[in-house]
Write a structure and sequence with these properties.
With 201 residues, this protein is an alpha/beta fold. Helix content is 31%, strand content 23%. It has 7 helices and 7 strands; from the N terminus they run ααβαβαβαβαβαββ. The chain has a 7-stranded mixed beta sheet with strand order 3-2-1-4-5-7-6, sandwiched between helices. α6 links the parallel β4 and β5. It is globular and about 40 Å long. The chain starts with 6 loop residues before the first helix and ends with a strand.
Length: 201
Amino acid sequence: MARVSTPDFWDDLYARGGDGWELGAPALPLVDFFATNRLDGTRVAVPGCGRGHDARFLASLGYETVGLDFSPAALAAARALAAREGSSAQFEARDVFTLGRERPNAFDGVWEYTCFCAIDPVRRAEYVASLAGAVRPGGWLLACFFPLRGAPAGPPFPVSMDEVRRVLRPAFRIDRAFPPVRSVRGRQGREWMVLARRTGA
C-alpha cells in the first residue's frame, strides 16, 4: 500500500482517467451542511483537495481556503479552475503528513473528504495527528468518512465508525456525528459525517 504515499501513483491515475473519486462539483454532504450551518473562524484547509471543487466552494462562502495536495496534476487542474472562476481559493503542494509540523495552528478548521480513505490505512493515526497540529486548539474538523463498506484492496480503503472514533481521540472531541443529507449515486448509505473540535489549550 506504500504506492498510495507517492505523488506518481496519483498523477498516473489522473493521466489515465482513473480518478473515480472526481465529482466535478462540490461534495453534496459539504454543500448541504453549510446550507444550514456556519462554522467559526476564517482559515480552512482541504487536504487531498484534488481538483479543488470543495476548496472553491468554501472560498465562495467567505473562508480563506487552502487546498492541499502533492499531485502536480491535481494542483494544476485546481489552480486552472480557480483562475477560470475567479475563486480566492489557494492551492499548495504539500504532503498531508507534514502539514502539522510545517503549518502549526495555521487553520481554524479542516474539511476532510476522501483523503482519509485514500491514504495507507496504517497511517491514519499519523494523518489525524498532522491535522491536529495544523488546527488551532478549539478549531474544528468537519469530515465525511467514506466508504463504510467496501473491498480492502483500495483506494478507497474501507472505514469504520469505531476506527474513526478511536483515531480522533484524544486530539479531537466529536461534537456531532450523523449521516449526510445527500450522497452522490453509489455512496448512499456508505458515508458518515463528523463534526469534531480540537482539544487542548
